[in-house]
Every structure is written in structure tokens, then in C-alpha cells.
Amino acid sequence: MPADRVSASRAVRGAVLRENIYAERDQPPFDRVAMDGIALDSTAVSEGARRLHIQATQAAGDPPLSLGTPTSCIEVMTGAMMPAGCDSVVPVEQIAILEGEAELAADVTVEPWQNVHRRGTDTRQGTLLVSNGVRLRAPEIAIAASAGMARIRVSSQPMLAVISTGNELIEPGEPILPHQVRRSNAYAIVAALRQQGFQRVADDHIVDDAPELKRRLKFHLETHDVLVLSGGVSMGKLDLVPKVLDELGVHTVFHKVAQRPGKPMWFGVASSGAAVFALPGNPSRHLCALPGM
């Protein structure tokens, strides 16, 4: 299957990855504050310090500050880089702040590296994160973005054409006569395909006329990888699809399946390699033939 390189922001759910994704950096790439609170030197607390001067505030995304004295602390936010000279974080719920000082609650104990997400504990730089051949979902796309990949190599999507046949079919919104019905099957098929991640989906409607059907199906076979037809596949005089496909050199793999409704389903393969699925036109039969319905 040919491959395309797409931006991470436009990567399609269900696409197949065609390259390995490796960690760009250690993850986390630094000692990361895991809770809002104060960063401090745990040794000073073990030596009796319980009231610490608040030196400054450091938010996520700020360059790291340095602790000025062991009896100072730095207010920190979740996701911030651990300030230099600090080795522990006490959550905001366990301190009282008054007049620029933070006092630890009486029952609070402080251990080195508590509430700190240590550098590289998730993955190390160069670690394989996602393997070639994996089907992309939201988590894999997020991992690719976190690895710094602006573009992702994925299998090219097939070109699909959804084709309904029948003189009686009228588009939604168009004037309709008592003997006509709305064209709805194609809308269901297109929606089902897009739900599975297929984006290159064309749509066509062809009347029950053998020369016109042959001309249009020939065009679609030459320009698409997969055809999904609705209608004209049963045993009636105007069920022209199997005969026309045969005339176009499409090899019949099977015609009719052991299910009710939906028995007239047809499948074949063109000399070009295009796959052709022909579903019955009755909406209830048609819906039973759709995957997941």
C-alpha cells in the first residue's frame, strides 16, 4: 500500500502507521512537579524547619528557579520544572500561608522526591513508543505529537465510490412524487465508511439504464479502489448491476449470502484490483449488510 505523510493535526483515526515513533526526549524531560504546593529542601525539614520563607513562585513553563537558602521554599504549580536546590513538594492542602511564609501542618512528613515525577521514569530518549503497522487511534496520534512529529507517515487511504442505482430515487429536499422514494442508502453507507476512518469517499446515483450504468461504472472502476453499490443486484429485469459488471470484466467472487434480509449481496474484483461490493437496495436489507449495523 502506498504511503502518505500527513500532519499530526490531520491524522485520521484508523489510518495505519508506516514508520516507528521514538521518544524525542526523556519523559518527563525534567523532574516535574506533580502537585500544586511548595518545593523545598527535605533535609532542612528533617533538621527541624517547619516555617519556610516563600522566596518566589514558579509556574509550569517557567525556567527553573534556584532555592536561595535551605529554610526558603518556592511556590510551584503542577507540571512545573523542579527548582534547583529542591527535592520535595508539599501539597498546598498541607501548608498554611501567612505573611510570605509557609508553615507545614503538624502531622506533615517530608520525604525526598515526594510528589515529584522524576525525569525519564516514563520513557528514555530513543525508546520505541509506537511500532510501524499499528492502526492509529487518538492515543497514538497524541504520542506522535508528544514525540515532536509534525508529520506522520501513514498508508494511503483507498479511493471509494458509493453508488446507488434506481429510477425511483430522489434526493432529500427535492420535489417527490407518490411513486418515488428518497435516496437514503448511500447516506448510510458514506456515514458508516467515515465512521471507520475512510475520508476519500465519492458519491453517485445512476438510473436503471444499461448503457449509462456501464459508462459510469467503467469510469468509477478506473478511478477508484473500492466501489460500494446499492440496488440493482437481485433477480429482477432491471437488476442490471451483475450483468454490467461482468461485461466490464469484474470477476464475480460470490453472489448471494446466507442471511435474511440481505441475501442478494454481491462481491467481485476488477482486473485493476478494485473491489466491488453490491448491496441490495431495500433499506432494511441494505442496513443488515453494513458492518457494525
Description of the molecule:
- The chain has 293 residues and is α/β, with parallel strands linked by helices.
- The chain has helices at 42-46, 138-146, 185-195, 210-223, 241-247, 283-289, and strands at residues 3-7, 21-22, 32-33, 37-40, 51-58, 72-76, 88-91, 95-98, 101-104, 116-117, 128-130, 151-155, 160-165, 169-170, 181-182, 201-206, 226-230, 251-255, 266-269, 275-279.
- The protein is built from 6 helices and 20 strands.
- A 6-stranded mixed sheet has the order 7-4-6-5-9-8. A 6-stranded mixed sheet has the order 16-13-17-20-19-18, sandwiched between helices.
- α4 (210-223) packs across α5 (241-247).
Topology:
Elements: E1 3-7, E2 21-22, E3 32-33, E4 37-40, H1 42-46, E5 51-58, E6 72-76, E7 88-91, E8 95-98, E9 101-104, E10 116-117, E11 128-130, H2 138-146, E12 151-155, E13 160-165, E14 169-170, E15 181-182, H3 185-195, E16 201-206, H4 210-223, E17 226-230, H5 241-247, E18 251-255, E19 266-269, E20 275-279, H6 283-289
Parallel strand pairs: 5-6, 13-16, 13-17, 14-15, 17-20
Antiparallel strand pairs: 1-12, 2-11, 3-10, 4-6, 4-7, 5-9, 8-9, 18-19, 19-20
